[in-house]
Design goal:
Helices cover 27% and strands 27% of the residues. With 433 residues, it is an alpha+beta fold. Among the domains are: 109 residues, Rossmann fold, CATH 3.40.50.20; 68 residues, Dna Ligase, domain 1. A five-stranded parallel beta sheet has the order 3-2-1-4-5, sandwiched between helices. The chain starts with a strand and ends in an 18-residue tail after the last helix. Bound molecules: adenosine monophosphate and glycine.
């Protein structure tokens, strides 16, 4: 298989990282990204060295929710493989539409993606399949939900059932906060239809782990474990964001944890196959390492952002070949090898994010990064010759090193070159506490 045309659906840092990795896969001829960003556009370079991209990439002006146009584009351009980035597209059945048109696509069907698109579905599925998770209740009725919070009399987390761009999860300190959260989700409908059902969980404590794996519907191949830094400020202060940086591997992950995660992921794959909705794509478990052992907080049905920006640079095999093997149910035949060492990704965000922020600000210093450092674009767009900001998370600087400390040093050194007005970032990404 050679000279493949690949389409990536999405326009964030995750999609730039996927485009970068696929453009380094020997089988790939060209990468299209819909809609992409200012970073997902580069010429082919036949003499690329290992860390550089060989295949070219270009943006396609189609939004991720325009399934009809995406299928049409894939047919016209004879796309050989489509990779879906965001959960919204999966939940609305983009994979089903591609499959119905006879197109090769990497990602779960709408039915299998319920694991992420409905928290109530995911919780019930976990209980049915003996997957350790926080105790919970699911409610459609406000009074019943309030009574549940009063009865358990412990700190809880209140979650809107459906997708809400990471905002529908409210971690509460006491009953009063929990009732306020229920009111926001169920009465004021701050998250719209996502809040018709609410999940209330016991609040757990511990370090978090992002466990991503490739799956072909039969087996899984775990990627190196990562950790995301969700709060805006250093030392995990301030409001939650989409993720301010990530690193891999985790110094606190031992063989026991890896075995636990593999077991959990396999139970998911087997459980969904048994329901008649086999799962092919990236299966991503968000775990918490609690004093009572690891527990699953949630499943995501896609590559994580910003985890992908630190995981794909560690891949020592062709991403295209792995994804194609998944679509052909032969992942177990595929070597999935990883580099030694570590990788860290530091997000550069707009001033004011995750609240209100300005866009359209010029970005300086986007020069060719050194080997082992790559600048992934997220919220950027091209305005003539100038790259400008167009979102909350603007760039992610990923650096590989022989150790985590080495990778950190490279990322933060390169970060000095890049500048835009109001730029903010965390200084403690990859610090292990
Ligand atoms: P989720 O989208 O369910 O992973 O929730 C987003 C974030 O909320 C997680 O990464 C945790 O930081 C936090 N969270 C979710 N569920 C719990 C829980 N049961 N206990 C404590 N924190 C939680
Ligand atoms: N890093 C969190 C997510 O991708 O959902």
């Amino acid at each position: 298989m050679n000279n493949l045309n690949v389409l990536i659906v999405g326009g964030g840092g995750r999609e730039h990282a996927l485009a970068w990795s696929l453009a380094r896969s020997p089988e790939v001829g060209h990468v299209f990204v819909a809609p992409g960003n200012a970073g997902t556009n580069w010429p082919a370079n036949p003499s690329a060295t290992d860390w550089q991209t060989r295949a070219g990439a270009s943006c396609v002006p189609i939004e991720t929710d325009d399934i009809h146009a995406l299928v049409g584009f894939a047919q016209e351009q004879a796309i050989d493989l489509t990779v879906i980035g965001p959960e919204g597209a999966l939940a609305s059945g983009v994979v089903d539409a591609f499959q119905a048109a006879g197109l090769r696509v990497f990602g779960p069907t709408q039915a299998a993606a319920q694991l992420e698109s409905s928290k109530a579905f995911a919780k019930l599925f976990m209980i049915e399949n003996d997957i350790p998770t926080a105790a919970y209740g699911a409610f459609e009725d406000f009074d019943a939900a309030r009574q549940f919070v009063r009865d358990i009399d412990k700190p809880v987390v209140v979650k809107a059932d459906g997708l809400s761009a990471g905002k529908g999860v409210i971690v509460c300190d006491d009953g009063e906060q929990a009732e306020a959260a229920l009111r926001r989700i169920m009465v004021k409908r701050e998250f719209g239809e996502s809040g018709v059902v609410v999940v209330i969980e016991e609040r757990l404590t511990g370090r978090e782990v992002s466990a991503l794996a490739f799956s072909d519907g039969l087996s899984v191949a775990l990627m190196p474990l990562a950790r995301d830094h969700k709060r805006i400020f250093d030392q995990d202060c301030g409001p939650n964001t989409g993720g301010m940086g990530a690193f891999t591997p985790l110094p606190d992950a031992d063989e026991g944890l890896h075995a636990f995660i593999n077991e959990v992921l396999q139970r998911v794959i087997d459980g969904l196959a048994k329901r008649g909705t086999p799962y092919m794509g990236v299966l991503y478990a968000g775990l918490m390492l609690t004093p009572n052992g690891p527990k699953v907080l949630e499943f995501n049905c896609r590559f994580g952002d910003p985890e992908t920006q630190c995981i794909v640079p560690m891949l020592n095999d062709s991403l295209a070949r792995i994804l194609i093997a998944c679509t052909e149910s032969r992942l177990d035949e595929m070597p999935v090898r990883w580099h030694d060492g570590a990788c860290i990704s530091v997000v550069l965000a707009s001033g004011g994010y995750p609240g209100r922020y300005r866009i359209g600000l010029p970005i300086d210093g986007l020069t060719q990064a050194a080997d082992d450092v790559v600048v992934f674009h997220a919220g950027t767009s091209q305005l003539g010759e100038q790259v400008v900001t167009s979102g909350g998370r603007v760039l992610a600087i990923s650096a590989k090193g022989s150790t985590l400390a080495d990778a950190r040093q490279r990322a933060y050194e390169h970060l000095e070159c890049v500048q835009f007005s109001g730029m903010q970032f965390r200084r403690d990404i990859g610090e292990f506490r």
